[in-house]
């Protein structure tokens, strides 16, 4: 080594415990502090073959964060507009003596309330939600057929079963929202020529 | 140099700015890495992410937007709490006052209400997207289970909040909802008493639902969200590509 000039960069670089040096630490050492000099370039293949996966990554900023900020911004605008133009419902003061003509659960429970019209309350109100929730939790431990298959075409059974389940839940909820009127009777909304038509929707969010 | 440029420079050179953002605007790869790594809010992300994971059409931002809605609901909810007393005699009047007297009260209540419905909806959609991608397969099985807990928590957050306006919609929706739970074999009576704090929806129910809504379920959600996000990283980032 013949280097006599003191390096222009006067930052003090503390030696890093070699066992704790990570990839980033290695990069951070400034040129002036490196205890070696570049003598020659050796083709990597000639020394060792470092196992390296193809790099398919991008920087989080800006590639991911810009999308997240944009999505959050659009959602904010949407919520602001909703909040400005549509008021949240509020009816009269709660009164335990006056049962309203139409009493419905919140929409995400309407599927269950619809089941209540067909089954015993224990089945509709307790066993079904319990089964759905616990069953959903067990999906990853049941679907063990082909653990690497992720494309829908490779896992038709799972996709078909799940889609059928979702369609069923959606249909029940849909009926509960649109086709149930006073006393939870079956009604057809808006169409006056039906016998059991109802002038509007019996539903509030 | 224009006035704005000078303003910009003097702000960026000020001590306050430099203590706040230790690095200049990140333009090269290393400073971009630091920008994510050194920021308490951003370091939830790794510095680099796999290319397919940032495609909008893979996640549709559904999980992220569910979380964003959770944050919006927290903020609007805290504001509403200043003006709301969980009392059967006061609650309804409080809501009326929030709508007519409180500055931005109506807007805040509206956003809180629509945001809540939207969050339940988005969590459902997020779950469907995860299912159709088979993203619950190894090593992500447990994160799916955490997700199911989050789904339950989200629904319970919405359901407990539903009672708080103490109007006819609220009262009867909760009456129906809790009646359903009252049909559980063997444990029906204790469950109903525990939920309602009495024989029917009343003051005790309102207080219980209030505490569950503003304290218990938000805490549960926060804990499981932390685990959920942690596990995404530990499971090697977003699944895929398909
Ligand atoms: C409060 C509700 C929830 C929030 C805020 C949330 C948030 C997130 C976020 C931000 C991601 C990153 C990817 C993406 O955006 O899709 C994610 C991924 C994931 N979530 Fe959720 N989640 C919630 C509920 C659920 C539910 C209900 C499930 C399933 C039952 C679930 C299962 C998963 C799984 C398995 C992943 C990994 C997906 C992958 O690697 O492609 N999460 N979640």
Low-confidence region ranges of chain A: none
What distance lies between the first and last C-alpha atoms of chain A, to the nearest angstrom?
Answer: 78 Å
- Which secondary-structure class do the elements of chain A indicate? mainly alpha
Please report the number of helical segments of chain A.
6
Quick one: CATH superfamily of the largest domain in chain A? plastocyanin oxidoreductase
The helix-strand sequence of chain B is: HHHEHHHHHHHH
Number of helices of chain B: 11
Radius of gyration of chain A: 32 Å
The total number of structural domains of chain A is: 3
* Total beta strand runs of chain B: 1
Strand content of chain A: under 5%
With strands numbered from the N-terminus, the spatial order across the biggest sheet of chain A is 2-3
What distance separates the N and C termini of chain B? 51 Å
According to CATH, the homologous superfamily of the largest domain in chain B is Cytochrome Bc1 Complex, Chain C
How many strand segments of chain A?
3
Rg over alpha carbons of chain B: 23 Å
Description:
The complex is a heterodimer of chains A (205) and B (242). With 205 residues, chain A is mostly helical. Chain A contains 6 helices and 3 strands, in the order H-H-E-H-H-H-H-E-E. Chain A folds into 3 domains: 39 residues, no CATH class; 31 residues; 107 residues, plastocyanin oxidoreductase (Helix Hairpins, Orthogonal Bundle). Chain A has a two-stranded parallel sheet. In chain A, helix 4 packs across helix 5 and helix 4 crosses helix 6. The longest helix of chain A has 26 residues. Chain B is mainly alpha-helical and 242 residues long. Chain B folds into 2 domains: 48 residues, no CATH class; 180 residues, Up-down Bundle (Cytochrome Bc1 Complex, Chain C), CATH 1.20.810. Helices cover 69% and strands 1% of the residues of chain B. Chain B contains 11 helices and 1 strand. The longest helix of chain B has 32 residues. The N and C termini of chain B lie far apart (51 Å). The chains are: A mainly alpha (205), B mainly alpha (242). At the A-B interface, strand 1, helix 3, helix 4, helix 5 and helix 6 of A face helix 3, strand 1, helix 5, helix 6 and helix 7 of B. The structure holds protoporphyrin IX containing FE.
